[in-house]
Amino acid sequence: MNRLTALRMKNPIQGYSWGSEDALTRLFGIKNSERKPQAELWMGAHPNGCSLVEVDGLVVRLSVLIAGRPLAMLGEHTMNSFGTLPFLFKVLCAEKALSIQVHPSKAQAEAGFKREEELGLPKDAPNRSYRDDNHKPELIFALTPFQAMNGFRGLDTILSLFERIAAPSLTDIVKDFASAQSPEGLSEFFHALLTLDGDIKDVALTALKAYAMEHQDEEIFALVLTLFNQYPGDVGLFAPLFLNVVTLQPGQAMFLDAGTPHAYIHGNGLEIMANSDNVLRAGLTAKHLDIDELIACTRFQPKLTNDILITPRRVGAVQHFDVPVSDFTFRVFEAGDHQLITSGAEILFAINGTVSVFVQGQSTLVLARGQSAFLPDCMGPYKVRAHGCFALAGNS
Description:
By secondary structure, this protein is α+β, with helices and mostly antiparallel strands. Helix content is 27%, strand content 30%. It has helices spanning 23-28, 62-68, 70-74, 76-81, 106-118, 155-165, 171-178, 183-194, 198-214, 219-230, 239-242, 291-297; strands at 7-10, 13-14, 40-43, 45-46, 49-50, 52-55, 58-61, 87-94, 101-102, 138-142, 146-152, 243-248, 253-256, 262-274, 280-281, 313-315, 318-320, 329-333, 336-341, 346-350, 355-359, 362-367, 372-375, 381-386, 390-394. Strand 4 (45-46) and strand 5 (49-50) form a beta hairpin.
């Protein structure tokens, strides 16, 4: 490599079934001639979808580039703390709901991964819960209106909603929850719901759908009906009754910490997360459910609606979306000229306009909307001239 500078990225697209056929085209002009679902555009060095970069005329995997020169690429702090790029940056396009998920803490992930390794479970086994030993905190930044569920509602609200449904097959567990309005009571109620089976589950879901049909003018029950069309017969259809439903407007963001049940419903956004693939599911999926492990990793505390959105810290033309983890940082810059300096590895993403990167006073890269660049730690000072907003993902 003659000179370390901003490197244009070529990013893989994951075609999960819940993805959109046209969102990436509408937002960023990315073609989809096959008209197949395009769910996530990955920017990073994850083994399941690694970006490519061009270096001295050669196209190489970003993971290979980092492994060959970790100090120059990552910087001393990141290299010593993580040993690799500690985050995965995505464009996420949800046409239908993703599964309800909880992510483990770092300690839980380490213990769970060790346990499943000792059991000899293949890392790609469908009944495996821990595919690595890392936690997976996440931030989602809305590019369009973005509907999601995040955290438990207040205990009294949950009880009231289930009493309104008045499903005969749920009478006993609702009464038990009414007499135990506590984190422990919520845990037992949550477990009882997720383990409903056979006729009891069918009768409960029939009552839920009938009530939702009569009250579809309410956001909660309109969402229930939408989910019925996507996941008929799934116990996760009760989720809007016990999780907060929120719609982020473009430019808003929320953070999802370990132990918080959540689900993305519909919309497009930028997502950044720790470099992990650990997911414990709680419904709206045909994949493996490990209910006992899920319960063990879930925090049964209501999440106040005021705590769902991140209030960015604005410094001039920059919004800092501060998060309580060191795996990643996320900033959004307005149009204009910005003097910056790399601190650890960074990924720059052009949101809605052309972005030019200057190193040592020379224009080194021009990005159109939807394009990204990898900025190695050793690049040092640089200038960005932006004709629209851009996002900068990094780590502290």
